[in-house]
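Inverse folding, one chain.
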């Protein structure tokens, strides 16, 4: 225990500083001094300092706003990911859809993103938002479109969640929770406590407290009754309306003495890892199920930064003043030793019987034989950490005897046995066990460094599945290590197999390779290696590699052979699996290429790249279709221009989300369905409503966009509607303009979606352009800028309608490798 911690006493439960601990909380000492100086400047004493303080305050607000914007962008990016998955569209299309939805619902983009995440996640944050909405709407359903009062709650919780997931430590988690979720609830500070197995607590993160106050409460010994301790003991949230009336100590008790507090335990899988403590300057917010769920959701956000700590048990009984001082002095003594040492505390059951010892402390010299860090051993029970202590070595019995009698025990050359991956490792050590008050001190010193090196080598051989051997050809003596017997499937008492008998234990097909290996090794007296299949006595065949070298005597004869065997079965089967995977991948690629060719033929049979001008009811209609540059990206763009039985002309373009056979078949379904529906004489808005029902009910989750127009040659009027598509472009008198962006959801959306209609009367020599986004969309440019460039290109003079369409395709700077459909409608002068 550090010196600062020693200055505390059980009689005064206020914890003390950890030495060298970095200040935590809201601001540091330097930051706290500036407001005092700035107030002096406000009184006219120091205007220079006043200006500097104002600058610091302004920069701090900018930093906080930048952090909030960054967290908000994380929420928006996550919502875009949900749209990409659901709509099977590109990120750019998802961003555009999110903006369109926000505009149509009259919600900020950040609030709408939080609502989309809630609907996709259905987690505890979503349930909290649902509860707030239900309360605000007087019991109406969460999906009631007229209520959005819980949007702020969803946005705050999702923003806090994104900050927690991006946080590097628990301190950053505390800052994010206070900034995004708790200050709107009028809370002024928050503390995240990490709970140790012995019931002690450490302040893992704090925000809103003074730096010196957070440093004083860096550590809380076991048994000190604080709000966090009560929450841990009761395993449920503790609400304290007036903190001063409780008389309990805790961090910030002098800052908000009359305020309220809430302490909520947190953990995963029933395993408590910490406590979230929230402070208010005055009374607590109204305690409602909605507020309780929100605070519990915030507590769970802290769990992922604490879940790597050891499991926390229920706190033990409080220590007396003398026992606490004795334990503190013992820990100080142990930390000064040069040998590994453990401080053990007895574990007593309900009947008062000793069942085990808990490892309360490990000194800096402690090195676990298994290689585990000190933090994973500290707090564990002795028999859980070292189960063999109750067996061959009898270490547990010796510790128990010392604890019962108080007589110290010391022994040299005691064998300590440790279980490593079911492999027992034994090493001699000097042992010292002594009792100090109610604790037991266990010290051991490993006798020989060579034993530690041998243990390390044994670990390396076990992990690498390598066994070493040495064979004396003169005496016939063969030495194997333990791993060799494991590789050959023999008992440790079995007779080792000589190299000359190796062919009898190998697969018949490998005898030639083994013979070549033996001739090189024994006759040519050179190092050699080979791989073979070993037939073990248990019937298992393993793939081994043997590497050996000869050791020559003074006359040049082979005296002995030493080498190693390695089990390469996993590598062999991995190579076999990779070869099979490559074959299957080649077959899959061939099938995919064939499917893509068929899809491409289907698409181009229905949508030819060019189509001659069509004279229909006084209109000249020309079509251009440009497939994607990458033939593997067969898309779902489509167009249609046909004269209906009523004499009106159907003009439409569309874009089905996705690529491949699904997009192509979805395109065929929507195109043919629209043709059939258009014969009913309905308007374009009604046609798109029906087409949305077709996409919703009669396809496999097809989504897409479309523009549908009906031209009446008698009145020269074009009625049109859009379903999430880009607006048509009108070229009149040498000037190109985009038609108004009327409302309409994309196809495959809600079944009750409505579509507005627009009306346009064509004049002589007018040109109307319908197109898909493959003509204009760029990854690095906003859609508004690309549309402006399209208007400039479309307004340039052209000798004919076909030349105008070809010019648009030639000068298109789109870079998304998407299909492009383009329809041009020209009303010639009479």
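Residues assigned per position:
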């Amino acid at each position: 225990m550090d010196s600062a911690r020693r200055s505390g006493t059980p009689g005064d439960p206020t914890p003390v500083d950890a030495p060298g601990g970095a200040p935590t909380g809201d601001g540091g000492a330097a930051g706290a001094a500036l407001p005092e100086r700035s107030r002096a400047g406000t009184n006219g004493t120091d205007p220079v300092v006043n200006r500097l303080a104002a600058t610091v305050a302004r920069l701090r607000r900018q930093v906080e706003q930048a952090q909030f914007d960054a967290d908000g962008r994380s929420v928006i990016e996550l919502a875009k990911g949900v749209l990409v998955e659901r709509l099977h569209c590109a990120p750019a299309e998802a961003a555009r859809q999110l903006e369109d939805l926000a505009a149509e619902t009259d919600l900020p983009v950040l609030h709408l993103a939080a609502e989309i995440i809630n609907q996709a996640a259905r987690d505890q944050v979503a349930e909290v938002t649902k509860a707030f909405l239900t309360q605000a709407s007087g019991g109406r359903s969460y999906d009631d479109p007229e209520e959005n009062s819980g949007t702020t709650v969803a946005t705050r919780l999702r923003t806090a969640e994104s900050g927690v997931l991006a946080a590097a430590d628990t301190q950053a988690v505390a800052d994010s929770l206070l900034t995004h979720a708790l200050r709107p609830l009028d809370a002024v500070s928050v503390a995240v406590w990490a709970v140790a197995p012995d019931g002690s607590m450490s302040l893992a993160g704090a925000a809103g407290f003074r730096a010196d106050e957070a440093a004083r409460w860096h550590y809380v010994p076991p048994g000190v009754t604080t709000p966090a301790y009560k929450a841990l003991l009761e395993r449920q949230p503790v609400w304290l309306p007036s903190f001063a009336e409780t008389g309990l100590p805790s961090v910030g008790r002098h800052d908000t003495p009359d305020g309220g507090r809430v302490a909520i335990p947190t953990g995963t899988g029933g395993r408590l890892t910490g406590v979230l403590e929230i402070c208010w300057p005055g009374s607590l917010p109204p305690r409602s199920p909605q507020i309780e769920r929100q605070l519990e959701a915030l507590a769970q956000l802290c769990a992922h930064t604490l879940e790597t700590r050891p499991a926390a048990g229920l706190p033990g009984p409080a220590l007396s003043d003398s026992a606490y001082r004795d334990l503190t002095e013992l820990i100080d003594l142990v930390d000064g030793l040069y040998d590994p040492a453990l401080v053990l505390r007895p574990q007593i059951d309900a009947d008062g019987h000793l069942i085990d010892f808990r490892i309360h402390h490990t000194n800096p010299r402690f090195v676990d034989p298994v290689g585990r860090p000190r933090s994973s051993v500290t707090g564990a029970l002795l028999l859980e950490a070292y189960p063999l202590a109750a067996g061959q070595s009898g270490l547990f019995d010796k510790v128990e005897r010392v604890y019962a009698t108080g007589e110290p025990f010391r022994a040299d050359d005691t064998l300590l046995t440790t279980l490593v991956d079911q492999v027992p490792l034994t090493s001699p050590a000097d042992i010292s066990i002594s009792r100090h008050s109610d604790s037991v001190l266990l010290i051991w010193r490993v006798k020989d460094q060579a034993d530690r090196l041998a243990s390390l080598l044994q670990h390396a051989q076990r992990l690498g599945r390598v066994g070493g051997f040495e064979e004396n050809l003169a005496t016939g003596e063969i030495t194997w290590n333990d791993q060799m017997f494991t590789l050959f499937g023999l008992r440790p008492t079995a007779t080792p197999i000589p190299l000359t008998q190796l062919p009898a234990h190998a697969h018949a097909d490998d005898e030639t390779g083994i013979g070549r290996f033996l001739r090189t090794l024994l006759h040519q007296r050179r190092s050699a290696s080979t791989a073979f299949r070993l037939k073990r006595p248990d019937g298992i065949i393993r793939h081994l590699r043997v590497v050996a070298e000869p050791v020559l005597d003074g006359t040049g004869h082979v005296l002995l052979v030493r080498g190693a065997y390695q089990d390469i079965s996993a590598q062999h089967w991995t190579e076999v699996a990779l070869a099979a995977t490559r074959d299957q991948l080649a077959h899959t690629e061939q099938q995919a290429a064939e499917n893509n060719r068929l899809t491409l033929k289907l698409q181009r049979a229905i949508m030819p790249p060019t189509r001659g001008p069509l004279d229909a009811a006084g209109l000249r209609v020309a079509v251009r279709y440009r497939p994607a540059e990458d033939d593997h990206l067969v898309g779902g763009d489509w167009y249609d221009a046909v004269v209906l039985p009523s004499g009106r002309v159907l003009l439409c373009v569309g874009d089905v989300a996705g690529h491949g056979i699904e997009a192509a078949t979805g395109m065929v379904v929507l195109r043919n369905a629209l043709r059939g529906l258009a014969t009913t004489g309905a308007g374009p808005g009604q046609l798109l409503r029906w087409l949305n029902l077709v996409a919703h009910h009669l396809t496999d989750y097809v989504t897409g966009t479309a523009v549908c127009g009906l031209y009446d040659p008698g009145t020269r009027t074009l009625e049109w509607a859009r379903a999430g598509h880009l607006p048509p472009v009108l070229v009149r008198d040498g000037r190109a303009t985009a038609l108004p962006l009327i409302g309409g959801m994309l196809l495959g959306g809600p079944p009750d979606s409505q579509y507005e209609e627009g009306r346009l009367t064509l004049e002589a020599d007018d040109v109307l352009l319908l197109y898909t986004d493959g003509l204009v969309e760029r990854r690095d440019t906003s859609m508004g800028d690309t549309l402006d460039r399209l208007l400039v290109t479309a307004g340039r003079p052209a000798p004919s309608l076909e030349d105008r369409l070809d010019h648009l395709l030639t000068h298109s700077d789109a870079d998304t490798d998407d299909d492009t459909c383009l329809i041009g409608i020209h009303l010639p002068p009479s």
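Residues 689 and 752 are 8 Å apart (CA to CA). Residues 465-567 form a domain with the Beta-Lactamase fold (CATH 3.30.450.20).
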